[in-house]
Amino acid sequence: MSKKVLITRVIPSIAYDSLIAAGFDVTVWERDTPMTQAQLIEQTKKVDALLSLGANKLNKEFFSACNHLDIIAQFAVGYDNIDVAEATRLGIPVGNTPDVLSEATADVAFGLMIATSRKMFFHHKTIERGEWKQFEPLKNLGVQLTGKTLGIFGMGRIGMVMAQRCQGAYNMNIIYHSRNRNIEAEKLFNAKWVSFDELLKESEVLSVHSVLSEETQGLFNKSVFSKMRRSAIFINTSRGGVHNEKDLIDALREGTIWGAGLDVTNPEPMKADNPLLTMPNVAVLPHIGSATEEARTGMARIASGNIIEFYKTGKMLHCVNPEVLKN
């Protein structure tokens, strides 16, 4: 009997084609709206392997009902939606898709930095509202980025690409804070590891590329924003939960920081009346960091490849709890 796989949303066809070619029985949730938790559990009970998206909450409730799974393959690099500790306890390996979306996500962070620094989204809206009437030399001026100090919170794969973009285009000075020093970044970009407080104090642009964890949940709050430069631009393309959105709004309104560029919000999706959307010095996108044909195709290839490799060899292309595979 062939193993059954559930894919929780329609993703690039390379995933289905690869799984079917490898002999799997594949079911895809083809509706426009994501599954409810009840639907996810009901459908998962019927399969051996799950290819899930970040919107799926694989929590204790889920694992209590679906502890039979052989493997979970996440269609994302992040996995904060999954109770990995519970999956590990049950002996279920969890895969993800790192590397393949680093370029695309760094592009968005880089673009948001530029758009925020020149108030591009705001100026575009003035045209739509018919407010572009004449040249106004002192109105809604932006700031230049050349030679500024870029602070990176989380110098991983995406942070590395962001540093490369910023140093190459604007000769920016690179500082960073991570749990571990990144020697490669220090060699390539002359990047300097600093304490978190130093990162806040020295960064003229602070770009967040960390995972969402107990340590980073709501980390960028009123207290943290108060330690940043009043001229600082805050960029977040990681997870919305890393910043406290009310505190960010207050910091921007009160001039505690200069601007913000967000590809992720808290909560998601953002409501249309969110005040961030009308601020001149803010640029917001609807979580499109990995939204290129190349990145999404690569994610589908790796996610399906994790399942195929697991059943073929007992290993995975990328596993976030590899101790399960050893057992």
Quick structural gist:
With 327 residues, the protein is α/β, with parallel strands linked by helices. Helix content is 37%, strand content 14%. It is built from 13 helices and 12 strands.
Q: What would you note in describing this structure?
A:
With 327 residues, this protein is α/β, with parallel strands linked by helices. It has helices at residues 14-21, 37-44, 60-65, 84-89, 102-117, 120-128, 157-170, 183-189, 196-202, 222-226, 245-253, 293-313, 323-326; strands at 4-7, 25-28, 49-52, 71-74, 94-95, 149-153, 173-177, 192-193, 205-208, 233-236, 259-262, 282-284. Strands 8-7-6-9-10-11-12 form a 7-stranded parallel beta sheet, sandwiched between helices. Strands 2-1-3-4-5 form a 5-stranded parallel beta sheet. Helix 3 links the parallel strand 3 and strand 4. The longest helix has 21 residues, at 293-313. The model has no long low-confidence stretch (mean pLDDT 96).
